[in-house]
Each structure stands twice: as C-alpha cells, then as structure tokens.
Fold this protein.
Amino acid sequence: MIVDRRSLVAGAATLLAPALLVPAAARAGPVTRLRIAGDRVHLPASIDGRMVEALLDSAAETSVVDRALAARLGLRGGAPVIARGTGAATTDATLVAGVELFVAGLRLRPAAVGVIDLGDISRRLGGRPIELIIGRDLFDAARLAIDLDAATLATVASRATPRGVRLPLTTRRGIEGVPLTIEGVAAQADFDSGNGGTVLIGADFAARHGLLDGRPTSTIAGGGIGGEVRQTTFTLRTLDLAGHRFTDVPVAIDASPTAADANIGIRLLRRFAIVTDFRARVVWLDYRR
C-alpha cells in the first residue's frame, strides 16, 4: 500500500514466518503461529490493547483498520485521503496517528494507520471479517523468517545468515520489489503477501513485450481495495525467480494505473522459505518444492 497526503494504495492479504528457517539461537523473539486460509495469511495482533486477528500484507505501505473497529476503539479525526488498491475504484480513507500495535512480540508505533471500510473485501474473501491489515510497519521493524508450510513467523537476529538466494529489494511507490525474469525478459515484481490470487502482470509490461499476442485468454474476478474487477488471464511459458524456473504459470493482467511489471503473491511465494530484511533492502528465498 502506498500512502501520501493525497493518496493511499493498498494490497489486501497475508504473509508468514517460521522457526525452522534458522537455528533457535538466531531467533530474536517468540515464534508466532499463523492461520492460513487458502492463500491468505492471518496472525494475532493487538491494536490499542484490543486483541484481533489481522491479515498480513507486505505490500501495504501502512497498516489498515476497518472503520467499524476504529469506531469501537475511539479512533477519530485524522487526515482524509484517497485509497487506491487493485480494485475498480478509489476509496475514501483517513490517516489516524497515535495508534499502538503489538505484533509478533514487537511494539509498533506507525506514523499513522489507514482507516477504511474493509467490509467489501471481507465479503469477497469469505470467512471471518477482516478488521485489521498489518502492513510493512512489521516488515520495517525486524528481520522476519517466514515459513508458509509451518505456518509460523519469527523475528531473526541480523547476525544470522539465512539459506536461499539473496535478492535485492527495490522500492516503487512504497512497495518493495524483487527481480525476476518473465519469458526471458528481466522485470521487477512487487513482493506482495497480500496477493492471495494468481501472479499479476502489468498491462503496460504485457503490451510492450507482446505477451498476449496469439495466446488463449479467459477472464476471472479479481481486485482488492476499491472493489471487484474482471481480469484477463493467460499462461506464461516460463517465469524465473531466485534461481528456479517455473513453467506454464497462470497469470492475470493488472490494468490498474499503478501496476508494476509483475506482482507475486502467496501462490508463488509459498514454494519458498522466506527471510525478509526490509531495513537492509534484501530478501532470501529458499526453494522447497
């Protein structure tokens, strides 16, 4: 999610971490158990002393509170902004300061949290209502070990040397991205644990490289904050990430005006054990299956 005084861009999903990625001596805090529902990741969190279940979204530039929960917590005032996610339209939001979060043993005091009506996302994702999205506030606070198979998250000491391929992080519109190759073409992909759907390919990138030329396509429902959209889907022949080649990869076109070359979410990331270090501008991906 990208935030400034005029606009707020949000993803809407999840991310996780493990005890098995690094030795116990390298862990810097407790192991947090995650609840994984489909391709969404949830974890316990406290906001101003109230325990809730949160959705974990590495592509949310700030954490987001549902408007109904904010009212119950007495979060008032703040600066009005516009939120834009991968949905069909923008959404009214408010940036509220002075909120305290406790997540994964860490005390987070973000400059502000976004207050948005998350009812539409809750209805489209099904299951329990989404009251809180934990964004990059958590990722900026510590090195995190993430294991989707083990459904755990742990903070990791910076002296540890994680396994896997070390990839640099590049910031674009407040979202961290990693390098990858799409059918032989170098590209940057948003690192988005909030994406619980298919890999996304930016419409501009697809047009520049003729990815839709002569291929069978179909449409699916997609989108995040801002409502549902119809997305064109097709199959990539190859996608290379962290030293591993994926073949016959289902993808969808992201036609939003802020789309990156690509966006990789949980469906692809769960093939790796993950260690993130946003402060050091790096992530390690260790291919497992």
Q: What stands out?
A: The chain has two domains: 2-156, 165-287. DSSP finds five helices and 26 strands in the chain.
